[in-house]
Amino acid sequence: MRLILIRHCETDTNAAMRYGGQANVPLNGRGRAQAQAIGARLARAGAAALYTSDLARALQTAEIVGATLGLPPQPLPELREIDIGQWEGLTPEELYRRFPDQMQAFERDPARPVRSGGESYAQLQQRALAAVEAIRAAQPGEATVLTVAHGGVIRALLCHAIGLSLANFGRIWLDHGALTELHYGAHGWRLIRLNDAAHLETT
Asked: Sign of dihedral through CA atoms 24, 29, 32, 37?
């Protein structure tokens, strides 16, 4: 299976550098233009299916891309962004002021600490992998499958695919609307391309 992972396009929350978590925030104008550029970029990809997180920013991205490609988005709640609980809507600076103990624990061990009322990276990775296995079961062989998800979800999948500890989660940068491609074959997952944003140069 050729799996093209699309990070959802920009929202006002993203532009303000605030953590979105599982908030249902819509795309902004730039985000909608980014989604249109993705559709044009993938017009010849020969995709067989389009899956998406059911959060608004991902679903809207998928709807715009799908309208160009003639593919109906198939929402999967398991592809939602990490649940960050009380961190939602805050900037990194605000987190250090409000939750200093949590931030220190997070710096010591990024994989296992659970945000206030939310999830850990390890929990996120477990459900993201379950979603991908369900997609792989539904799309056997060498099908090309598009999946619109979130930065956290894609990073968690990448760590699994290339054998990185989740301690390296934050070292992977993904632009909004960028493409990351994995291939599943006889030897498991292979990373084909990472953070391909060439189609966004004019947005």
From this structure: negative
- The domain tally of the chain equals 1
CATH number of the domain to which 131 belongs? 3.40.50.1240
pLDDT in tens, 66-95: 999 999 999 999 999 999 998 899 998 998
In whole angstroms, what is the distance from residue 21 CA to residue 174 CA? 16
Domain containing 35 equals: 2-200
Catalytically active residues are 8, 81
CA distance 148 to 4: 9
Burial class (CB in 10 A: 0-12, 13-18, 19+), 56: middle
DSSP β-bridge partners for residue 182: 3, 191
